[in-house]
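Preliminary data (for renewal application), adenosine-5'-triphosphate complex.
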Amino acid sequence: MDKTQDRKSRSVRGIVPENHPRRESILIRERLVEALDKDVVVPQGLIAQGRGECFDYLIGERTRDFAERAILEAAVLLVEAKNPVISVNGNVAALVPREIVELADTIPAKLEVNLFYRDETRERAIEKVLRDAGAKEVLGVGEDASETIPELFSERRRVSRRGIFSADVVLLGLEDGDRTEALVRMGKKVIAIDLNPLSRTSLTANVTIVDNVTRAIPALRNKILEVKGLREDERKKILTSYNNREILKSAMRFMADRLSQLSLDL
Ligand code: ATP
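Predicted structure:
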């Protein structure tokens, strides 16, 4: 039996009881392992998910106030952007394929495959996931990723000229700190979704949504529908009253307070 078949035979999909307290999280893991076998996710992506799960535990696996406020900010930025681009990596494609395509259609924004571990097999695998989910155009695949982000080395710097390279607002789900910093230095407004408020990505982005992509992406889409109905001055007020440092502080405080409370309740 090869490794893929062996993993399939050990899959718990279909046998996790409906009332299992960790059901959702177990099924998400299964989804990522299946994506690993299709070249959509790399093993390092599983480790990133594990780090994310730990922070999700600390916020009680719910979208909290600090994430809601960042989602509102992100919605206004995306609606007002001239060339908004959603950067899609393997984990995002595996976890929320349909939701990310719906989000792109709603804004409307371009979708670009953007990988830390880039190779054409993975680019094509992720493109296929997005097209199967309804995407009409997917940037950043093959020759299309021919521009480079300054100051970054290796394959990580390749982006699409029509996409991230010329974008004014970029939405990143699970990104590494170097690339986030480089995009901010290029003058782009960067929105990051990252469960870890301490990561360099979280600290560098203009807007940090400390939440799971599985909850944040659908919530962002709903918020965009609302924001489209707001007046110009209402949107402006939202933009000018936002402070990302305060959002990160409040996420960190929330985690610390929740742990203190839980320790008292033991
Ligand atoms: P940085 O380079 O920004 O300091 P890092 O080294 O932690 O961060 P990665 O290893 O690329 O970066 O991890 C990606 C980030 O994505 C992690 O901070 C992790 O908490 C977060 N993450 C993982 N899974 C999810 C998820 N499902 N939703 C939101 N964030 C997630």
